[in-house]
Write a structure and sequence with these properties.
The chain is α+β, with helices and mostly antiparallel strands and 194 residues long. It is built from 4 helices and 8 strands, in the order E-E-H-H-E-E-E-H-E-H-E-E. The protein has a single domain, classed as Gcn5-related N-acetyltransferase (GNAT) (Aminopeptidase). It has a 5-stranded antiparallel beta sheet, with helices on both faces. Helix 1 crosses helix 2. It is globular and about 45 Å long. 31% of the residues are buried.
Length: 194
């Protein structure tokens, strides 16, 4: 079984590997999506280029090693042939036992790894269902290809847009009753059948 992901198409989007030619647009889109300060953006371009080169090499290397296809993929709006975001997979490690709704880890203070999903969309294109459509296309592909039993996503209490996407993806939204870790405030969980 190959672990590489093909280019994925949905009604409005193409979800594909990043390429070096994406650098300038990806830098702008991700800087905007993560609300990076304007005065720091130019100085961060070399970091973004290093990340992009790593991302491209990572996708190839993971497939050669038969590992899960962790990493970012470009989200391109077909109608404009424009890169508008990123969606991807990550090993998500956290104290799932402190969340109500994770029965197999209940009460454990240990950290466990789960298959994580994330997204970022250019603010100029938010509110159009792009994150939901891209994440849905990726989920459908990986659940079919890898027979996943569960996928999760994490966000902060105040990120209501991400929580809304989690809900549209059919995720159960769990709230962390503990103050730490800060990145683990809200966890979306979606289970898949046999």
């Amino acid at each position: 079984m190959s672990t590489s992901l093909p280019v994925i198409e949905s009604e409005r989007l193409i979800v594909r590997p990043f390429v070096l030619e994406d650098l300038d647009v990806a830098h702008q889109v991700l800087s905007d999506a993560w609300d990076e300060p304007m005065d720091e953006r130019q100085s961060r371009l070399p970091d973004r280029e290093r990340w992009l080169r790593w991302s491209i090499a990572n996708e190839i290397a993971l497939a050669e090693l038969y590992q899960p296809p962790y990493g970012d993929r470009a989200v391109v709006l077909k109608s404009e042939n424009r890169l508008v975001g990123s969606v991807g997979l990550v090993p998500s490690i956290g104290p799932f036992g402190q969340l109500p709704g994770f029965p197999e880890y209940r009460g454990s203070r240990r950290w466990f790894a789960e298959f994580g999903l994330y997204w970022a969309v250019d603010p100029a294109y938010q509110g159009r269902g792009i994150a939901t459509e891209a994440a849905t296309a990726l989920i459908e592909r990986i659940v079919d290809q890898f027979r996943l039993g569960r996928i999760i996503a994490t966000t902060s209490f105040d990120n209501l847009r991400s929580q809304a996407v989690m809900g549209k993806l059919g995720m159960e939204i769990l709230r962390n009753p503990e103050p730490e870790p800060a990145f683990f405030q809200v966890v979306g969980v979606r289970e898949f059948g046999p």
